[in-house]
Amino acid sequence: MASNDMDTMFRYKMSINPATIHQIGKIAELHKQVLTSGFLSRLDTAILGKLYKLILKEGILLAAVTDDSSLAGFVSFSHDTKKLMRMFVKSSPDIYLRLFITYLRHPSFVLRSLETMLAPFKHGNNNKGIRNIPASELLSIVVNPAVQHTGTGTALLQKLEGELKKRKIYSYKVVAGEQLISANRFYQKNEFLLTDRIRIHGKTMSNVFVKSLSID
Q1: Which of 33, 77, 82, 93 shows the greatest Cβ crowding within 10 Å of its Cβ?
Q2: How far is CA 47 from the centre of its chain?
Q3: pLDDT tens digits for range 140-160
Q4: Which secondary-structure segment (H or E) carries 209?
């Protein structure tokens, strides 16, 4: 982490720990507030909450909290996104009812939801057909707008990678829409390598980055 990032990050006190079940509602709300372009952000917080409860159980969900108990951000990770999406759609009957209501209000979401659910199945091979893309995936890093540019995103990533090493996971991927310039720069700055490009929504391309961690 650059020295200027360190200086800004510690202008306020922050701790990063595994999220608790009581923080799921705030995490879902922050997701909807910040990740406005994605399909999941169009769903209500109840459905998002079910997804994050599943991530908390099956993957890694870390929350950054300031000294006044405000949610500064979070990072979510899945050991196997294909398995996670299968479990999500089967986890509770009321998900289908809520999705149906959403589809009635926004018919275009039918296609976008299917594309989102199928996205994890679109990569796994690079363009030459060599299987070298790990199943483990960084799903999202979300920072509260109130504390942006304070190094919170970098701190969340470093904390996640510490957790991955504890679990002996030394390689993982992240998918970022090609149009998300700042996100792509963030991953490249943090030593992710562009490994594949896929289409998730229509003609829009997404970049698949992979990062390998050192074995301490």
Answers
A1: 77
A2: 16
A3: 999 999 998 889 999 999 999
A4: strand 205-212
- With residue 48 as reference, give the H or E element that holds it: helix 45-58
Please state at what angle helix 81-90 crosses helix 45-58, rounded to 10 degrees. Answer: 130
CA-CA distance, 99 to 97, in Å (whole number)?
5
Q: How far apart are CA 37 and CA 148, in angstroms?
A: 18
CA 153/CA 147 separation, integer angstroms: 10
Residue 200's CATH number: 3.40.630.30
Low-confidence ranges of the chain (pLDDT < 70): 1-12, 38-39, 92-131, 199-203
Number of separate domains in the chain: 1
Coil, helix or strand at residue 14: strand
Q: What are phi and psi of 191, to 5 degrees?
A: 70, 25
pTM here? 0.79
Predicted pLDDT at 26: 97
Tokens of 59: 């993957």
